[in-house]
Input
Amino acid sequence: MPGITLKLSGVSNPSLSRRLADELTTLTCSLLDKKPGQTMVMIQYVAHDEWFIDRRSLTEWGKNSFRLEVTITDETNTRLQKAAYHRAAFELLSSVIGNVHPHSNVHLIDCGAAAYGYGGLTQEYRYQHDGGPEARTAGA
Output
């Protein structure tokens, strides 16, 4: 059940937001083996004059930037999956946004199953009551 938060430099753009919500959901579900129906995406825009890297605004840099944070349940993905996701997400966002500052970044945040969940239930509770990993691979 990934929670995806994307911060983009610039002004609100509903068309771009919809495109990126779709593409990030597809990428996240594909590379991290998650379910689209349990994937949440929030996109926020920050003005170039209010985004700073090394004490200079993006306006001064003449660049765009993004910060992608994806929360996932700890121990549900391998290091190789996470590395592949980092590369692919950076490439996707860089190509769509263009002219990105090299310090634009991707963060995968591993959350403990007992502290992370949705609908009032933790992921640990779901794991314990849905039959563990066998139930998940069977479509539970």
